Amino acid sequence: MTSGRKLAHDWHDGVIPENVIFDDTNVIDSSHSFLRFKSLKDNALTLGHRTVIYSGSGFDLGPEGRVQIGAFTMINNARIICDEAIQIGDYGLISWNVVLMDNYRVPRSIEKRRAYICAILQNPERAFALQTGAKPISIGDNVWIGHDSVVLPGVEIGSGSIVGARSVVTESVPDFAVAAGNPARVIRRLKDADQPRVMAFKSRRT
């Protein structure tokens, strides 16, 4: 798969950052996914067994950002914006154009927003000090997030849940629920009979 931190098949002339933890069971389509990866943390990104990062996905991690992705999870052309912590469980499906963001980054007030934009244009490193505070995101096992959805700072999505396409998740979603809309609301619960079957995947690692 790799020669050192260089992907053998990569169309992009880059390498996988040293603080990304992965192994030969993982599939990473391109180092281009790490173009905005600026985390200085040890183990800033950890990929579980057989997890896949498909082309078009992007890891926009600030200096303090850390992302942990469980086993057998698929990240398909999604954008992960992290300044503190984002955790994704096992057997997850993160669909195309999904955005997970633990920080809005841009301040809400006009005055602070102008200062932030000026800092980005003049001194990008100084812009970090003007960002809003991050709130960690936690996504459980066996979660499916539909395409074009956005998960906002501080949200927790429970195990076995589904987020409908093009939803904006502003509040936490319980286990075994289906949430959809803008803002996303729980529209149904998975039947009790479904729950053991979903959780059984945990014991099927091969």
Outline the structure in words.
- The chain is mainly beta and 206 residues long.
- It has three helices and 21 strands.
- A hairpin with a 2-residue loop joins strand 1 (2-3) and strand 2.
- 34% of the residues are buried.
Number of helices: 3
Unreliable sequence segments: none
| Shape, per Cα inertia axes | globular
Radius of gyration from the alpha-carbon trace, in angstroms: 18 Å
* DSSP strand tally: 21
Along the chain, the helix and strand elements come as EEEEEEEEEEEEEHHEEEEEEEEH
**How far is the N terminus from the C terminus?**
20 Å
Structural class, please?
Answer: mainly beta
Mean pLDDT: 91
Strand percentage lies at 25-35%
Strands side by side in the biggest sheet? 4-6-9-12-15-18-20-21
Helix content: 10-25%
Q: Largest sheet at a glance?
A: 8 strands, mixed
Features:
about 210 residues, mainly beta, 3 helices, 21 strands
Secondary-structure blueprint:
Elements: E1 2-3, E2 6-7, E3 20-21, E4 27-28, E5 45-47, E6 52-53, E7 58-61, E8 66-69, E9 74-75, E10 79-82, E11 85-88, E12 93-94, E13 99-101, H1 110-122, H2 124-127, E14 137-139, E15 144-145, E16 150-151, E17 156-157, E18 162-163, E19 168-169, E20 177-181, E21 184-189, H3 194-199
Parallel strand pairs: 3-5, 4-6, 5-8, 6-9, 7-10, 8-11, 9-12, 10-13, 11-14, 12-15, 13-16, 14-17, 15-18, 16-19, 18-20
Antiparallel strand pairs: 1-2, 20-21
Write a brief caption for the model.
With 206 residues, the protein is mainly beta. The chain is built from three helices and 21 strands. It starts with a strand and ends in a 7-residue tail after the last helix.
